[in-house]
């Protein structure tokens, strides 16, 4: 297995919003590809996993479906999280935070970034940003 290929593939997938479990599976498959084997040596199941992961590399991310921030389900929260963490955190994490999913904070490894995101999340929560 190529550790470099695994790391690069995993980072590319997770930074484009691919769920962690799918990203890890796909990265493991790619890192173990046999360049001289038919279908790179991938089983049918492995080929299906790669097919599930490919759209995350072919798209700019979850926000591509919206023309502007005003088109998102909650422009205030999406604007806050995108404005502060766009390019720093994966779109999937930003999306989850902006949708009011506090568990997304656990996906942030950097302590300072996690603290800042938590502060913004708590302020928005206090303001009732996710209340109907």
Strand content: under 5%
Count of helix runs: 6
Largest sheet: none
Instruction: Please identify the structural class as seen in this structure.
Output: mainly alpha
Uncertain regions spanning at least 5 consecutive residues: none
Radius of gyration: 17 Å
Q: What overall geometry do the principal axes of the alpha carbons give?
A: elongated
Mean residue pLDDT: 90
Question: What is the element string, with H for helices and E for strands?
Answer: HHHHHH
Q: Cα distance, first to last residue?
A: 49 Å
Number of strands: 0
Give the % helix. 55-70%
Q: Care to describe what's here?
A:
The longest helix has 16 residues, at 111-126. The chain has six helices and no strands. The protein is an all-alpha fold. The chain has helices at residues 3-15, 20-31, 44-58, 75-85, 91-98, 111-126.
SSE order and pairing:
Layout: H1 3-15, H2 20-31, H3 44-58, H4 75-85, H5 91-98, H6 111-126
Helix pairs in contact: 1-2, 2-3, 4-5, 4-6
Features:
single chain, mainly alpha, 57% helix, 6 helices
Write a concise synopsis of the structure shown.
This protein is mostly helical and 132 residues long. It is 57% helix and 0% strand. The model has no long low-confidence stretch (mean pLDDT 90).
